[in-house]
Structures are given as structure tokens and as C-alpha cells.
Design goal:
single chain; eight-stranded antiparallel beta barrel; globular; alpha+beta; about 40% strand
Length: about 140
């Protein structure tokens, strides 16, 4: 009986952990919009809890748009490589959307998710205001 309960509890925990992994957000602006699928970590759970947010973003190095979130997200593992469409954090509240691929210096970025589809609307110089909200 204990084994069955432990198995059921473990299965519930595993399946619940995939809920955020399937979470999608909508990033919209006057230039266009895109949907992103979030990874499952403490930072994405905190991001979803603060939605919707509007972020003033600026172009950085002609590879990314960056802007500040209203509050910091939890620290999780970082990585240095990113691809076109990667959404991440540079600092605890520094939201980044990459519109080209590359590599960042240490300590790397926290990966929040990936944009699905075309993100060419971000590949232009200058600032942009984006709204980030849960996708329907």
C-alpha cells in the first residue's frame, strides 16, 4: 500500500512538474508578436506569477532586446550558449530576447524558454515596448 501511495505521489509530482514546461506566453508589440514555450524552473514559475507585464526593451549588440522586469526572479542554473528565439535572464531582473544565436560570457544566462516561429520583428535597431502575458 505504501509503495502504491509513493508511486502515485511521485507520478503526480512528475506530471505537475511538466505543467510549467508546457506553459506558453505571448510577447506582443507594435512591431509584431510571438508565442514562447517556457522551460520548467523556479524562474519561469516566478515569471508566470507576475504576468502580465510591460517591458521597455532596448537593442543590445544587434543580437538581443533587453529590459528590466518589475522584480527579480529566482536564480537557477545558467548556460553560455543561446539560439535565435531564446528567452532568458542576464541578471535577476534583466529580461532578454535573443533574435540571433551566439554565446555570452560567464556566468551565462538563465534560460526561460524559446519563441516558437518567426521573431524577425525584433531584428531592428532601437527600443521597443513589449507586453508579456500568458498565451491562451
Amino acid at each position: 500500500m505504501k509503495r502504491a501511495f509513493l508511486f502515485a505521489g511521485s507520478l503526480t509530482f512528475i506530471l505537475a512538474g511538466h505543467t510549467v514546461a508546457q506553459e506558453r506566453i505571448l510577447i506582443s508589440s507594435e512591431w509584431g508578436n510571438a508565442t514562447a514555450r517556457l522551460v520548467d524552473n523556479d524562474a519561469t514559475q516566478a515569471l508566470v506569477a507576475m504576468l502580465p507585464v510591460t517591458i521597455e526593451m532596448r537593442d543590445h549588440l544587434r543580437q538581443e532586446k533587453t529590459g528590466d522586469l518589475p522584480s527579480p526572479l529566482p536564480e537557477v542554473n545558467r548556460q553560455r550558449d543561446f539560439s535565435t528565439g531564446t528567452i532568458g535572464l542576464w541578471g535577476p531582473d534583466h529580461f532578454v530576447i535573443y533574435y540571433s544565436e551566439g554565446r555570452v560570457p560567464s556566468p551565462g544566462i538563465v534560460i526561460l524558454g524559446d519563441i516558437e516561429g518567426d521573431i524577425s520583428f525584433l531584428d531592428r535597431p532601437g527600443p521597443i515596448t513589449v507586453r508579456v502575458e500568458q498565451a491562451e
